[in-house]
Design a protein that fits this description.
Strand content: 35-45%
Shape: globular
Radius of gyration: 18 Å
Structural class: mainly beta
Largest sheet: 5 strands, antiparallel
Order of helices and strands: EEEEEEEEEE
Length: 127
């Protein structure tokens, strides 16, 4: 998963917290943080909540510096074993800029399956 955020407020954000409520179909013990736009700390909270905290990020607002107002964090996580084909895994996160209320991300969906059809595309372009 990659969670992207942008400060569209009216002032720089001193810290940002990304809180993800993991699906019960994912294995929280398998989580592995990955790349991010800024240094962060992370922790599991309760059963199935992960939070990523960007302290001293000083993320400018998009009106002051649009290009620098963006950030992201990514992580890998495994699904629980033996989920039946057709199982739908949904995910979304809440993003907090300083002490403001949560901004919700869109919901992603992943449907479990196997035996997908694969094929090769052969190009007939002449050079």
């Amino acid at each position: 998963y990659t969670i992207r955020f942008q400060n569209t407020g009216t002032a720089a954000a001193h810290f940002v917290v990304v809180r993800d409520t993991l699906s019960e179909k994912l294995d929280p013990m398998s989580i592995r943080p990955g790349a991010a736009s800024h240094p962060f700390s992370w922790k599991m909270e309760g059963n199935g909540f992960v939070s990523f905290r960007f302290d001293d990020i000083n993320l400018p607002d998009s009106n002051a510096n649009e290009a620098a107002s963006h950030g992201f964090v990514s992580f890998k996580i495994s699904q629980k074993p033996n989920l039946p084909d057709g199982t739908l895994i949904e995910n979304r996160a809440s993003i907090y800029f300083d002490y403001n209320g949560a901004v919700q991300t869109n919901t992603t969906q992943h449907r479990i399956g196997h035996d997908f059809i694969s094929f090769d595309i052969i190009s007939s372009m002449k050079r």
